[in-house]
Amino acid sequence: MNLSFFDQFSSPSLLGIPLILISMLFPALLLPSLDNRWITNRLSTLQLWFINLVTKQLMMPLDKKGHKWALILTSLMIFLLLINLLGLLPYTFTPTTQLSMNLALAFPLWLATLLTGLRNQPSASLGHLLPEGTPTPLIPALILIETTSLLIRPLALGVRLTANLTAGHLLIQLISTATTTLFSTMPMISLLTFLVLFLLTILEVAVAMIQAYVFVLLLSLYLQENI
User: Fold this and answer.
1) Which of 47, 81, 169, 227 has its CA 20 to 30 A from that of 201?
2) Helices in the chain by DSSP H: which ranges?
3) Which residues in the chain show pLDDT less than 70?
4) Helices and strands counted in the chain (H then E)
5) What's the pLDDT at 212?
6) Closest CA to 190 of 182, 202, 198, 201
7) Do the domain assignments include residue 34?
8) Does residue 153 sit within a domain?
9) pLDDT at position 181
10) Rounded to whole angstroms, how far apart are CA atoms 209 and 175?
């Protein structure tokens, strides 16, 4: 029984071929493509408004030098948002519950921000490893601690996103299983669990949006430290 709860996190396959790539690319097909018409429809207007809103929120903590990353960060935000929300639908697979995928997104972008800082301002980037005014006997220990906290950042990004989405999916499956099991024997308790399930689903929609925003926001803060 416990194994069936985790079956939803296994990557789908057809004839031994993994389908995770299709599940990653499918959300992009839902976005309407822009054309050259002067008069756009309401869906395109809503899409442009949402993209401008996301871009403005992500670029607020960044200087003008960091605005070059607007396309990458906004695309990543919309990509994670669509995958997280579509993963809440029944009989769907959520690629962001896979730690390998989240690390594959977090590590290269974190490394890019780190290399940007080392290239543009190496002294300031290395200065983050040793706070100003540190006593001399504590310098080796603080350098080791700060280096460890710097290297663990991509792991923390990936684990945070994976853990939050995995916990939410498990809770939804557990409560939905209890609702269907109790429906025939204790309908009133089943109704209460269904109410809890409904509230939990609303909470998970908020968590899916917040986690996508937090993932990209932390990357933008890491970028700000290095520019």
Assistant:
1) 47
2) 2-5, 20-29, 42-59, 70-86, 99-120, 122-127, 139-151, 153-182, 187-225
3) 1-13, 15-18, 32-40
4) 9, 2
5) 92
6) 182
7) yes
8) yes
9) 85
10) 22
Q: Which residue type, as a one-letter code, is found at position 98?
A: Q
Task: Note whether residue 11 is domain-resident.
Answer: no
The CA dihedral of 172, 178, 182, 184, to the nearest 10 degrees, is: 70
* 135 contacts 114 by C-beta, under 8 angstroms: no
Q: What is the pLDDT of residue 16?
A: 67
Q: How far apart are CA 162 and CA 139, in angstroms?
A: 35
The CA distance from 211 to 148, in Å, is: 24
Exposure on the CB side of residue 171, measured as CA atoms within 13 A? 17
Q: Which of 24, 153, 138 is nearest to 79 (CA)?
A: 24
pLDDT tens digits for range 176-218: 888 888 888 888 888 899 899 899 999 999 999 999 999 999 9
Structure tokens at 15: 């004839």
Residue 3 counted as domain residue: no
The phi-psi region of residue 15 (left if phi > 0; otherwise alpha if psi is between -120 and 50; otherwise beta) is left
Number of structural domains the chain divides into: 1
Q: At what angle do helices 153-182 and 99-120 cross, to 10 degrees?
A: 160
Query: What domain range includes position 150?
Result: 19-226
Max Cα distance, the chain (Å)? 70
